[in-house]
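Chapter summary example.
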Amino acid sequence: MALGRALVTGATGLIGRNLVARLEAMGAEVVGVGSEHDLRDASVANDLLRKVRPTVVYHLAARVGGIYANSTQKSGFYLDNTLINTHLVEAAAGVGVEYVFAMGTGCAYPKRLEGEVLHEETYLDGIPEPTNDAYAYAKRGMLVHLDALRAEAALDFCFCIPANIYGAHDNFHPKHSHVVPALVRRFVEATDDGLPTVAIWGGGSAKRDFLYIQDCIDAMILIAEARFSGPVNIGTGKLTTIRELAETIGSVSGFPGQIVYDTSMPDGQSERVFAFDKIHGLGWEPRTQLRDGLAETTSWFRDNRSAVRER
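The structure predicted for these 311 residues follows.
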C-alpha cells in the first residue's frame, strides 16, 4: 500500500467511519478526526496538520444535509463549509502534504445542464440548483482553491464528485438527512409502529444515482493510490426515481401500507447524469445492486436504531 500516513477529517460520518475502518483493515497508518476538531477555526486546522504531518489527507469534514436543510439554512451551510474547507486546505499546503483527496458534491453541477451528461470540466460552468446553491458554492470554492495551490504550492489533489452515497453510519436525522437515510428511518418506524402511510416530499419523479458506501470506498482508495489529479465523478451510472427508491425501501423494510406523495413540496434537481470515463479508466466498477445495498442499510439501521447518528 502506497498511501503513507493518512489523515481523515469527518471520520465520524458516513464516508469517514467506513473509510477509516477499511484503511485500518489494510494496515494503513490512519488518524481519524471528527467534530471535536472544529475546522472552522484556522488555529485548530493548523495545529492538527502540524501534529499529524500526513502524507495524504482525505478531507471529508463538512456540514451536510438533505433538501430541507440545504434550502432553509443556506447561510450556515455556506459559511461553515467555506471556513472548514479553506482552513483545512491552507493548513495542508502549509505543512507540505503531498496529496489531498477532497470530497465534492454532485449537486454543484450547473442546473442548465440538467438532463445532460455531466463531465468534470463543466463543473463550474453555470449556476447550481437553487435549493442547494449555498452548499454548492462552498464546495466549488474548495475546488478553485485546490487548483490554485496545485499551481502555486505543488499540492496535488483529487476533487471527488460522488453520486448519492448511502449505507451504514449515515446521518438518520428525521428532517436534516439525505433521501436514503430519511426514507429508511421513515419506513422502518412506520412498519414497526403500524402506521398506514408514509409521506414523501415531491412527486417522486426526480432521478438520482445511488452509490453504496463500500463501492464508494473502493473507488476512493483506488483514486488515492493512483494519485489521480483533478476532479473525478464516481457513481453507478444507473438512475433511479425517488418513487422507485421509496418503493424499494418500503419493500425491504416490510412496510405494508401506502406511500403518499406531497406534490406541494419541492423535488429538487430533476436528474444528474454523470460521465464516468475517468474513474472507469482507473479500472473501477461498482459491485453492489441497489436493492442489496438498501437492504443492508435498512438492516443496519434496525440493529443500531437506538444509537444512530443524527447530525
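To summarize the output: The mean pLDDT is 93.
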